[in-house]
Amino acid sequence: MRNAFPNPSSDSASADAALDDPSLIALRSGNTELRVAPRIGGSIAAYFETTDAGPVHWMRPATRAALDARNPLQMASFPLLPYCNRIRDARFDFDGQSIDLSGDGNTFAHALHGNAWRRAWRVGKQTATSVELHLEHTPDASIPGDWPFAYQARQIIELIGDVLRVTLGARNLADRAMPFGMGHHPYYPRTANTVVTASVDAMWHADPDVLPTHLGAHPAVDALRDGLSADAFDLDNNFTGWKREAVIAWTDEHRKLTLTADETFGQMVVFAPASEALLCVEPVSNTTDCFNSPADARENVGGCVLKPGESITGVLHWTPARY
């Protein structure tokens, strides 16, 4: 096991100061609060409990610097549409057409996380405990590599008591079929005593570019079932056979957060790198590079094809508890 990273709460003062940013939408239910950043990829900037000692964060909160940079990768969680994670060389073939996404402004060599996280979302209906966010994408012929299918997306982000519920959906507006995947990308506080528990069947091994090579056994599969220390392995991998529930526990603080997903999100990613104090347990509908997967692997990579006018919706819950 690696030496554990220090508690990332060294940034807590910056994060707590950012909670009052006027560009954020504040939602409250009892002692639980959310901050939502529509302009920063429709992201959640913070999810926390208010206490006499200060905020207790269930997701890693955005700092002042992150908000100033408008960087979704430094938010608490952000939506992934119309695909999750990487596409090799930003290219794939679909329905007899070669799709090249390399010029759409995504600065990664392998197109990453779709385009919705790099767009401002429009605010719709809002209450004290919920907000609707909307995004409509129309392909821009002047942008080489722009996602070539028109679609609209919606998020309903809400507090139900202290539970965070996110309803994520999309509709194909194109006059042809569209390959599709979606998910959410939450970051959690990572400490020396953070443990992740989830029932999974196998892991996609990956190359140095974090692109899948083969599906198979790995010690992390068994470790996840029993409770995996966030410091046990160097992970940025997809797991199959996920039972759509994962528990992130901070054992020394006697608190935990349970993520549950509906059948739309049949895949799970764990990102716990050796080099940084980061932890993600991501509910997704498709594995990395699913659009380039061979036909005989399709049942293990997820994703779908939306017909013209067809819609898809999925629901996620994060439930906090103390023990």
What are its keywords?
five-stranded antiparallel sheet, 323 residues, mainly beta, nine-stranded antiparallel sheet
- Average per-residue pLDDT, rounded, comes to 93
Beta fraction: 35-45%
What is the string of SSEs from the N terminus onward? HEEEEHEEEEEEEEEEEEEEHEEEEEEEE
> Termini distance?
26 Å
**Structural Rg:** 19 Å
What coarse outline follows from CA principal-axis ratios? Answer: globular
Q: Largest sheet, described in full?
A: 9 strands, antiparallel
Spatial order of the strands forming the largest sheet: 10-11-12-13-26-22-21-16-19
Helix content range: under 10%
Annotation field: number of helices: 3
- The total beta strand count reads 26
Structural class by secondary-structure content? mainly beta
Q: Stretches where pLDDT falls below 50 for ≥5 residues? A: 1-10
Protein name: Aldose 1-epimerase
Organism: Paraburkholderia gardini
InterPro entries: Aldose_1/G6P_1-epimerase, Gal_mutarotase_sf_dom, GH-type_carb-bd
Pfam family, one: Aldose_epim
Q: What is the fold's blueprint, element by element?
A:
Elements lengths: L11 H7 L6 E5 L2 E6 L5 E7 L6 E2 L6 H6 L9 E2 L5 E2 L3 E4 L2 E4 L10 E2 L9 E5 L3 E8 L13 E10 L2 E10 L5 E3 L2 E2 L9 E5 L3 E5 L5 E5 L2 H8 L1 E2 L5 E6 L4 E6 L4 E7 L5 E6 L7 E5 L19 E3 L4 E12 L1
Antiparallel strand pairs: 1-2, 2-3, 3-4, 5-15, 6-9, 7-8, 10-11, 11-12, 12-13, 13-26, 14-25, 16-19, 16-21, 17-18, 17-20, 20-23, 21-22, 22-26, 23-24
